[in-house]
Design brief:
By secondary structure, this protein is an all-alpha fold. The protein is 85% helix and 0% strand.
């Protein structure tokens, strides 16, 4: 019960399954990269090729987040207001949006994949692997978008365990299919991509079944509402931009490493960055599960004008994010070498990646403030504020990625992450303190004014 159950219990009840679901979701790409990096003879080059595909994979997923997170926040607010019919219209229109987007994105990326991969850092040695993986993965865009986008509508209705189950089904399938396709059937990189697409199909099928047949608010037929779709896109644009600009960061990083690393070190540095960013996703993925999985609590109680519960939820989410990143900081700083050996047995790549991982994770504890506060503002429909904060962090990251190697060489690019995270955390924390209480008071005043108008006899 989002409006009456104890807030700490609600946060744990929604955050933990969403956190696990996001962690498992990260395993889609992570497991592929572990197996690919261990293909005899070609593992390191194949890993670099798949790493070049990372920006496109992230960008495709971000469109699912645009519709899913934006729509689920609006749906939760309508549920908090007691307007379930409006909530159904939100869900139906979001289903139409995901269907249309998947068709457009599939055609666009299949037609443009070659210039995109070359622009994103593919070399003559790695292009073949990147092209193979990207072609097969893009063909399954419909399943990826539906699995990601519709899962938010399961969680926002309070069924976080079912949302977690949808992701687990795909992850387990991917774990089982990867070694069969890659090694037993000798499909290599193509096998990794095919296993991922099949796994996403299973997640998609479960999610669609639940929302059509079992959820309290189900997907139904409706007339497309352009204004409602624009509202969904406006709310979801900030988290979409967070994920989409992750692609820009990957592009900038790969291009800088290829340029400053040169023919001798470029592919090795990109393989290192692929490993480091994969490990980093083990932090950002689950933390996104905490901050976005609990948005339904904030949005519902904001819609119900229960400001004290909103404040309590925001505090609980921040504490949970800080605790999670503190544990991961210790793990990656102390065990970086052991972690990267999962991806490769090459001694030079292990040494370089362990160093890169320690650098990348220097500021993950401040990063918790960024995630909790930006997603908290998004849950309150403060989309312009959260968007500005997201752009500031990503813009700082890209700028530092481009500038630092000029003075310190290719390796200096790895310091862009901790510097950007620290600066952004300070800015986001300050802005949240300045606008949060004002926004809640404005909502309370609006509710009182609406109640007064209803009380006046006609």
């Amino acid at each position: 019960d989002l409006g009456r159950a104890p807030v700490p219990r609600l946060v744990l009840g929604l955050a933990i399954p969403a956190m696990i679901a996001q962690f498992v979701n990260v395993l889609y790409s992570l497991i592929d990269r572990v197996y690919i990096g261990n293909i005899p003879g070609i593992g390191d080059l194949a890993l670099a090729g798949v790493g070049v595909c990372g920006p496109i994979v992230t960008l495709l997923s971000s469109f699912g987040t645009l519709v899913g997170l934006g729509g689920s926040i609006l749906m939760a607010i309508r549920m908090g207001e007691g307007n379930n019919e409006a909530a159904r219209r939100v869900l139906a229109n979001c289903f139409l949006m995901l269907t249309g987007l998947s068709a457009v994105l599939t055609v666009s990326f299949l037609l443009c994949r070659r210039p995109l991969l070359l622009c994103f850092g593919a070399s003559s040695a790695t292009f073949g692997y990147a092209d193979t993986y990207m072609t097969i993965y893009t063909a399954g865009t419909f399943f990826a978008l539906m699995a990601v986008g519709l899962n938010y509508f399961i969680t926002c209705q309070g069924f976080s365990t079912m949302g977690m189950a949808a992701v687990l089904i795909g992850a387990v399938a991917n774990i089982l299919l990867d070694p069969i396709f890659i090694f037993a059937l000798d499909m290599g990189v193509a096998g990794a991509a095919a296993a991922t697409v099949l796994a996403q199909f299973l997640s998609c099928a479960f999610t669609v079944w639940f929302l059509f047949c079992r959820a309290p608010i189900r997907i139904g037929l409706c007339r497309p509402n352009g204004r409602l779709m624009l509202r969904v896109a406006a709310i979801g644009f900030s988290p979409f931009l967070i994920m989409a600009t992750d692609s820009l960061i990957l592009i900038a990083m790969n291009a800088v490493l290829q340029r400053y690393g040169g023919p001798q070190q470029g592919d090795l540095l990109i393989a290192c960055a692929t490993i480091v960013q994969s490990c980093m996703s083990l932090i950002t993925g689950p933390m996104l599960g905490i901050s976005s999985g609990t948005q339904a609590i904030i949005s519902y109680n904001y819609g119900a004008c229960q400001s004290d519960r909103v404040r309590q939820a925001a505090r609980c989410v921040l504490r949970m994010c800080l605790g999670f990143t503190a544990v991961l900081f210790v793990v990656f700083q102390l065990l970086a070498g052991q972690v990267v050996r999962i991806f490769t047995a090459d001694a030079a790549l292990v040494e370089l990646s362990a160093w890169g991982l320690r650098v990348f994770t220097l500021a993950i504890i401040p990063l918790a403030v960024q995630y909790a506060r930006v997603d908290g503002l998004t849950a309150l429909a403060r989309t312009k504020t959260s968007l500005a904060l997201s752009l500031f962090r990503k813009g700082s990251f890209v700028l530092l990625t481009l500038i630092l190697p000029v003075f310190g060489g290719a390796r200096a690019a790895f310091y862009a992450e901790p510097l950007a995270d620290t600066i952004a955390a300070c800015v986001s924390g300050t802005v949240f303190l300045l606008v949060f209480e004002k926004h809640l008071r404005r909502r309370e005043q609006q509710a009182k004014a609406a109640a007064s108008q209803r009380a006046v006899p006609s």
